[in-house]
């Protein structure tokens, strides 16, 4: 008997190997043998307009006048935003802006301070 790993999705013991992949016949999950040794989740790296990596708690500056949806006001260029939080989705920055309140921004319209 071979020592094949159990499926990481359903923990099935009936996995088999096909070239460089392991396959689970019960849940149809496929994974590579390299992913077994390094089990890093698919972490989305969020970068600002200049290519700097953003993290939770960073401070950023708006680099373009942005129209605020549902309002007649505009978020001006140079507005500083403190303590950002990264979230999933198209607008990947969640923050609070003085004078505007809670808001979501796209990372392509900010630069890291």
Q: How would you briefly describe this protein structure?
A:
With 113 residues, this protein is mostly beta strands. The chain contains 1 helix and 11 strands.
Strand content: 25-35%
* Strand segment count: 11
Secondary structural class? mainly beta
**CATH-defined topology of the largest domain:** SH3 type barrels
Q: Summarize the biggest pleated sheet.
A: 3 strands, antiparallel
CATH homologous superfamily classification of the largest domain: SH3 Domains
CATH architecture of the largest domain: Roll
Order of helices and strands: EEEHEEEEEEEE
Helical percent range?
A: under 10%
What gyration radius follows from the Cα positions, in whole Å?
Answer: 22 Å
Head-to-tail CA distance between termini: 57 Å
Strand order of the largest sheet: 1-2-3
- The DSSP helix count reads 1
Shape: elongated
Highest CATH level, the class of the largest domain? Mainly Beta
Mean pLDDT: 87
Number of domains: 2
Low-pLDDT parts are: 36-40
Domain Protein YjdM N-terminal: 4-32
Protein name: Protein YjdM
Family: Belongs to the YjdM family.
Pfam families: YjdM (PF03831), Zn_Ribbon_YjdM (PF08274)
What can you see in these coordinates?
This protein is mainly β and about 110 residues long. It has two domains: about 35 residues, N-terminal domain of TfIIb (Single Sheet), CATH 2.20.25.10; about 55 residues, SH3 type barrels (Roll), CATH 2.30.30.40. The protein is about 5% helix and about 30% strand. A three-stranded antiparallel beta sheet has the order 1-2-3. A hairpin with a 2-residue loop joins β1 and β2. It is elongated and about 65 Å long. It starts with 15 loop residues before the first strand and ends with a strand. This is Protein YjdM.
